[in-house]
Amino acid sequence: MTYAQIVRRFDALSGNLKGALTILVAAAGFAVMTVLIKIAGERLHVTQILLVRQVIMMVIVMPRVIRHFPGCLRTARMDLQIIRVFFALIAMLCGFTAVIHMPLADAVAIGFAKSFFVTIFAIFILHEVVGLRRWAAVAVGFIGVLVMMRPGTEGFDPISLLALIAAASAGLVMVIIRKLSMVDEPITILSYQAFLVAVCVAFPAAWYWQAPTTEEWLILIGVGVISYGAQMLNIYAYKWGEASVLASIDYVRLLYATLLGYLFFQTVPGPYTWIGSAVIIAASLYTVQRERQKQKTLARSPDGRGFTNI
């Protein structure tokens, strides 16, 4: 079967099936990216990993930016662009650090709490009205987070707080992007994200810089390329398929992280991780379902997911 035939068969599929197949590949890409970040973080500083990732992504998007330059830099809300980049930087730094120092499955599972923070921030930024049932879903979701993190016990890992901060920051970024998308083009949002994050992280990365080995360079390049590819696949998946359908499939990322964590680092999630993850996923899916009924797309918007995945 030729490539053209494969493309035609894929195009003939329903939107939900195309989205489901695409998101399975995207989730695998994100899982592989976290493995590479964890391996690179054994010796290299997190800011160095993030800088190389951003530079690679800048190189990839540069042709698109050049085609729209200088119009891509015109923004109606420079204040929101700066705030968004600031919290995106926090989300990535905290998220990368959590991935490096925690079992993969734990870091990924806590990251799913992003949907609950989206609901909370949407109230203040987008003036969205949230009903009792969605508030209940948020409360249940955070109970799942507490089950996983176990604060006040011997099993509590302080690094898990960074994973939670990353989820909160990513949720805030998604809501700000929704606000920005009302006045700015996607290419403008992408341009500021690509360049300002790199500029902000360049100084600490230079301070902590260690010359990567050939193997580490390959890993860092892999992080950048796979990250961009997975984000683009994620965007297309949520444009082709219904968010309420794809959301449940996206959680396969936890299974990928569990499998890769065992294969590469010999870590297996404990019972608290599985119980907490089940509660978080159930509450997240309910939140997405309520958004579908209310004709909202905050927690699983294609644009938001494209800019906020670590």
Overview of the structural elements:
With 310 residues, the protein is an all-alpha fold. It has one domain (16-308). 79% of the residues lie in helices and 0% in strands. The protein has helices at 3-12, 15-40, 46-67, 78-101, 104-111, 114-125, 132-149, 159-180, 186-208, 214-240, 243-250, 252-265, 271-293, 302-308. It starts with a helix and ends with a helix.
Structure keywords:
79% helix; 310 residues; 14 helices; mainly alpha
Largest sheet: none
Mean model confidence by pLDDT: 82
Domain tally:
1
Number of helices: 14
Low-confidence stretches: 302-308
Oligomeric form:
single chain
Instruction: Please provide the count of β strands.
Output: 0
- Rg (C-alpha, Å): 19 Å
Give the overall shape, derived from the CA principal axes. Answer: globular
Draw up the topology in text.
Elements: H1 3-12, H2 15-40, H3 46-67, H4 78-101, H5 104-111, H6 114-125, H7 132-149, H8 159-180, H9 186-208, H10 214-240, H11 243-250, H12 252-265, H13 271-293, H14 302-308
